[in-house]
Target: V-type proton ATPase subunit a
Amino acid sequence: MTTRRPRTSCTLVMILRSRRPSDQGWPSIRKQILVEKKLSSQKLGDIMEMTFGGRYVIMMMSIFSIYTGLIYNEFFSVPFELFGPSAYDCRDPSCRDASTVGLIKGGATYPFGLDPKWHGTRSELPFLNSLKMKMSILLGVAQMNLGILLSYFNAKFFENDLNIWYQFVPQMIFLNSLFGYLSLLIIVKWCTGSQADLYHVMIYMFLSPTDDLGENQLFIGQKFLQIVLLLLALVAVPWMLFPKPFLLKKQHKERHQGQSYTPLHSADDPVELEVHQDSHGHEEFEFSEVFVHQLIHTIEFVLGAVSNTASYLRLWALSLAHSELSSVFYEKVLLLAWGFNNVIILVIGIIVFVCATVGVLLVMETLSAFLHALRLHWVEFQNKFYEGDGYKFYPFSFALLDEILGYATEQLIGKCGGNGLFS
Model:
């Protein structure tokens, strides 16, 4: 490609499951869904039963994989111009220098997804690396914002105003002042075709916030906005740390005000005095314990905002590994076998290609993507709102059910019998 990096289409959707050619053929899953009533009454094997149980998940994965293939405009690592002609042209009619010197831009930006002409050029890998890394950050910041938003609904449900004003609000401010701003810079760079170095912008936002941005300026007023966002991020940290423990202590004092004094009783009845004191007693507020807990929570969120965002880059690595494996299987197995002009070698090459595609790309890569996605949901997403408090879980048990019914029956008979209903 030319030295100037082209604009990435703003319609590019942030789905990181790159190039799933094997998932284009999902008739078996579709058949399982259409005849699920018949299959549910039959005895299936272990593997078939596991596949049948997850048929809807596999179907959704297949649909999104097909959509991702459209986003990258590829099918089995073969580019196709489904949404119009490419925006790039060769420098000469023979197009021999496409993979060495590069192409020239001769038209408008490709309307949907990635321009197919990127495939096979010398700039393909650097361009896709940058693209997938930025897409991973956008997806991660969006999901972490959703997790913080869910913490607001938790606090609203339990009518906990302290968590709203001293946890939800500063967390949203801190995360979006840094990584929300980074996401904004990524989108602006895509839409404007700027040559700004986002690494330089984010690093010197902390080291030298008042310095001139120079060629890294993406829009007017960027330096002033960076200073404001940096101050907001600095204010959000003590906002999360200090007010909540003091307000909890104040609420505890107001709740138990007047309960620290008990009326005098006769010393002849110590049992009555002890019972009375226990009825008016309450737990002491451990301010140091609450403050340390809040300190740990604040440090965990501040450091986690950085580490969690970096953890979403695993999507970039998975997408890159999958696309490269797909290219290797296509070019080094199928095309290589095709070049021998031998039917036997061609048949062997097709068998190896199909087995590698199903075994590696479909089975192993799907399992890997599932495990990484599960980890991102459990660690990076749920730690923003999930606390693990509440009621202890008791699994269903017939023995426990008999005990509950027996206890309820005894209470009912005792109550009704006392009223003379069973006399």
DSSP finds 14 helices and four strands in the chain.
